[in-house]
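anyone seen this seq b4? input:
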Amino acid sequence: MAALAAATLVAAGVSAQDAKIVIDGSTTVGPIAKQFAEHFMKEKKGLNITVGESGSGNGAKSLINGTCDIATMSRAMKGEEVEAAKGKGVNAVQHVVAFDGLAIVVHPSNPVQGLTVAQVRDVYLGKVKSWKDLGGPDKPIVLISRDTNSGTYEAFEGLVMKKEKIAEGAEYVGSSGAIRQRVQSTPAAIGYVGLGFVDETVKALVIDGVAPTAETVLSKQYPVSRELYLYTNGDPKAGTALAEFVGFCKTEKGRQIVSDIGFVPVPAK
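predicted toks r here
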């Protein structure tokens, strides 16, 4: 029976020892990983790919502890994480899977169309407390943020907050989808999400005169842009399903999936 199972895997182009890929990490990169996994499992019968979304920091921990094959991260690994990996004999290798812009989003009914990075920072510092001061209604601003273990939070902290602390009273949520949900149901709210989470239920603001689009992110004109990553323990061995998965973002199909989700694809091979 075991021999028959192994033969089936080989026929599908998957070796018995290469039949499972465990992925964990960023909720932002999660939709890309899930779509890639769905494609691969259709193409390679017998290959099992699981995708967790516990946050970028937990993805790094999972890779360091050997409990995942790929850590998805919406920020680069920190120096201390790289050192912790080395201490466990793990060589954390970075692979860019897509580019992203952090869209600053408000309720569609909010008349404010754009802000500067400095204004967004002042809002999240609590220096600006009412939309009236920004050309909007006379309503207190409701601050929505990602949880502090999130790579999206850390990207926002670095790109917008300049490492300054978000004001007390901000509401922290566990995913970009949760931020979108809070903003779409709260007329006075402001939040930040990856480009792939912007839809008609929220309004993405123009920042420093530049709208968050695929073109402005790729050209680096949009001021709140970043890279999205996959991390592996060393470079995957050529010909394995893991190597194919990591390189899939550079194929025509992989780039199309990334684009369809709403992120910006990496250049083709």
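The first strand starts at residue 20 and ends at 25. The chain is about 35% helix and 20% strand. kinda curious what u guys think
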